[in-house]
From TrEMBL:
GO molecular function, one term: peptidyl-tRNA hydrolase activity
Protein's organism: Thiorhodococcus fuscus
Domain annotation Prokaryotic-type class I peptide chain release factors: ranges: 21-37
Any Pfam family matching the protein: RF-1
Domain of life assignment: Bacteria
Keyword Hydrolase: yes
Cross-referenced PANTHER family: PEPTIDYL-TRNA HYDROLASE ARFB
Protein name (database record): Alternative ribosome rescue aminoacyl-tRNA hydrolase ArfB
Regions of compositional bias (Basic residues) in chain numbering: 125-134
Length: 140
């Protein structure tokens, strides 16, 4: 069981892992051992996620999610399979945790009278500055 938040737990059966040869560090060992992890999670079919979390997750995942709603996270930062596996799971956890927070709705406000006056005063000063740069035809 992968614990995301107190309300969201993902069952191990919903995760699939594939190990490949890593392009990262490892010396001569990199050519022999499959240490990179490709973690796949079907967000669209998961029972652990609510619909609004699923929609935010689709937006946050970007190119890591395919059209079927499967998130793929590749981890090859470390030399060992176990560390890469932990890294991939932690990145998935962070992504889902971030999607579980409902964004605060913006409350529209009006500019104050003083801020309007400051803006207009600034525009007048800029206009006067630019007017002063203009060349005037000489009166001869």
């Amino acid at each position: 069981m992968l614990h995301i938040t107190p309300h969201i737990q993902i069952d191990e059966s919903e995760l699939s892992e594939r190990f490949t040869r890593s392009p990262g560090p490892g010396g001569q060992n990199v050519n022999k051992v499959e240490t990179a992890v490709q973690l796949r999670f079907d967000a669209a079919g998961s029972r652990a996620l609510t619909e609004d979390v699923r929609q935010r997750l689709r937006r946050l995942a970007g190119r890591r999610i395919d059209s079927a709603g499967v998130i793929t996270i590749e981890a090859h930062r470390f030399r060992t399979r176990e560390r890469n596996r932990e890294d991939a799971r932690e990145r998935l956890t962070q992504l889902i945790r971030q999607a579980s927070h409902r964004p605060k709705t913006r409350i529209g406000t009006r500019p104050t009278r003083a801020s309007k006056e400051r803006r207009l005063d600034s525009k007048r000063r800029t206009s006067a500055k630019k007017r002063g740069r203009q060349s005037r035809p000489s009166e001869e």
